[in-house]
Amino acid sequence: MTIDNQPATRRGGSHTDLGAIDELRLGDAGLGDLGLVRLLDAHGVRHEDDRYDAWVSDIGTDQLLALYEDMQVIRRIDAEATALQRQGELGLWPPLLGQEAAQIGSGRALRADDFVFSSYREHGVAYCRGAGLVDLLRVWRGTTQSGWNPYDINMATPQVIIGAQTLHATGYALGIQADGTDAVAVAYFGDGATSEGDVNEALIFAATYAAPVIFFCQNNQYAISEPVSLQAQRPIADRAPGFGVPSIRVDGNDVLAVLAVTRAALDRARTGGGPTFIEAVTYRMGPHTTADDPTRYRDAAELDEWRGKDPLARVEAFLDAQGALTEERRQAVAAKADAVAAEMRAGITTLADPDPLTVFDNVYAEPHTGLSRQRDHYSRYLRTFVGSDGR
């Protein structure tokens, strides 16, 4: 689908006036709905917001249907990948169930020349950037050390080291600045990453040099098994202003609001306003990864409460009220999602295992004696097994 990433209305001044963002507000204590930007509530009711309505004035019924389709497709991809792991086709999978609006809303706001640095859960963002279906899963099957060529889609391969990508994004943003272009770097990370030194260091550098970078935190309420309340006694967005980075909290289950605040932050960065920190308040409905059992650390009542805030259900409710989500349209979306899942399954289950020695490929840009020695040792080790290649 295509969403025009240039808002219909731009605001004047040397850079965009983001209202709550530029106020470097501190907000109230608590981790709930206080201070959230919300345009579409859990019941599918549209709310006016004089700060952000202009940023989505071009989003009519057709565009919202396209965003809804994106979220349905990525939810189906996620379910299929989880099933593939349970069936032994993948070694591991980090589900995104519940976070579709945060990823699709922000991902569809980006331009092709923006560059994304993500963690390991941003499958929806990768889908928006044009990652191949099989490429989403290659690394989780163990057939590659990454998944795609970052420069093909302007998105780095997923970072497993928590928070490291924020420094990568900031460094890239400084390069953009030096080149004199108006592209933007975007770093995606979770609430747990905000306790890492890398994230704090990245905020310092970004603020100091007014780097064109967006720090997009998906607060999904859990850093693996620990609730966000253990590490944040105030909203996470309150931390960034202490570094000199304006911040905003948005309902991460509201695709329209996420699109609006991301567009506003992108425009701020493009016009010399520097970095912005976005806290998208959402919820991880499934496990941290398929190796996790979330029933051991959260109760069913909490899960039920967040099911009532489902990001897809609210868009469905709104479109139903508009008479736009016909049965024919529902069936078409479901058919596309199933077709995408089937294509992905067929592609991943027929991947050939790589030659074991390819693990040494592309480690260094030029020949390296130490690596050559390791390769020789590993080759001789493999020959001790049946077959010359160790298979």
What would you say about this model in short?
The protein has 12 helices and 7 strands.
What does this structure look like?
Keywords: Oxidoreductase, Pyruvate, Thiamine pyrophosphate. Its cofactor is thiamine diphosphate. There is one protein chain. The chain is an alpha/beta fold and 391 residues long. The chain contains twelve helices and seven strands. The protein has two domains: 53-349, Rossmann fold; 356-391, no CATH class. The strands form two sheets. A five-stranded parallel sheet has the order 1-2-3-7-6, with helices on both faces. Strand 4 and strand 5 form a beta hairpin.
Major sheet details: 5 strands, parallel
- The low-confidence parts are 9-17, 20-30
Query: Remind me, CATH topology of the largest domain?
Result: Rossmann fold
**CATH superfamily heading of the largest domain:** Thiamin diphosphate (ThDP)-binding fold, Pyr/PP domains
What is the count of β-strands? Answer: 7
Question: How many domains would you count in the coordinates?
Answer: 2
Would you tell me the overall average pLDDT? 92
What percent of the residues sit in helical stretches (DSSP H or I)?
A: 25-40%
Output the CATH class name of the largest domain.
Alpha Beta
Structural class assignment:
alpha/beta
N-to-C order of helices and strands:
HHEHHHHEHEEEEHEHHHH
Name of the CATH architecture of the largest domain? 3-Layer(aba) Sandwich
Distance between the termini: 43 Å
Strand content: 5-15%
- Described by the principal axes of the CA atoms, the overall outline is globular
Protein name: Pyruvate dehydrogenase E1 component alpha subunit
InterPro entries: Alpha-ketoacid_DH_E1_comp (IPR050771), DH_E1 (IPR001017), PdhA/BkdA (IPR017596), THDP-binding (IPR029061)
Cofactor: thiamine diphosphate
Enzyme class: oxidoreductase
